[in-house]
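Hey L., structure's done. Input below.
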Amino acid sequence: MIYTMKRAQIVLMHPHEARETARLIHDIILNVPWLDEQDRLSQALAYSPEALRHFISQHPTRVLIAKDRHYVVGFCLHTRESDHYRLAWYGVHPDWRQHGIGSDLIGNFMHLMRAEWAGCVRHHCHLQNRVSYHILQSYGFQEVESPLPPWRGKDYHTLERKIELTRITR
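Output:
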C-alpha cells in the first residue's frame, strides 16, 4: 500500500496557533543556508509567538498557515510597506515539501492580496532559492530593478507582481 499525503488546508493563523507557527518559522529560518548565523538568529527572533499574536491583532490577515489535521506545516507572512505589500517569508516543513503546499500558500496569499486591494506585491528572493523563485514566477512575479532594502545584499532578486484591481459594477 502506498501512502499519499493529503494537501494541507490554508487558513489565517489564530492566536492559539502562534506558538506552533513560531516554532516552524524558527526551524525553517535557522536552517536557511545563505543567511549567516547572526541573520538567522535575528530573523528567527523577530517571529516569536508574542510577535505573531501582535501581528494578527494589528492586521488579522498578516499570517497564513498551512495545516494538516493536527499540525502547522507551512506559513506565509506579509507586511505593508509604504507603496506596496511585501511577502516577507514563506516556508513549508521539510517533511511536507514537494506536495504543492508552498504553491497553495502563495495562491491563497495572492487571492488575499486581491481582496485587500493591494496594487503591488514584492518579495526579495535569494539567488540560491530556485524553488521559491519558480513558484513565484508561476504566479506572475517578475524580476524588477528595485533598490534592495539595507538588510538584503546583492545576492537577491527583487520580484514583483502587479495586481489588477477592478470592481464589477452594474
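The radius of gyration is 16 Å. Residues 101-115 form the longest helix (15 residues).

-- N.
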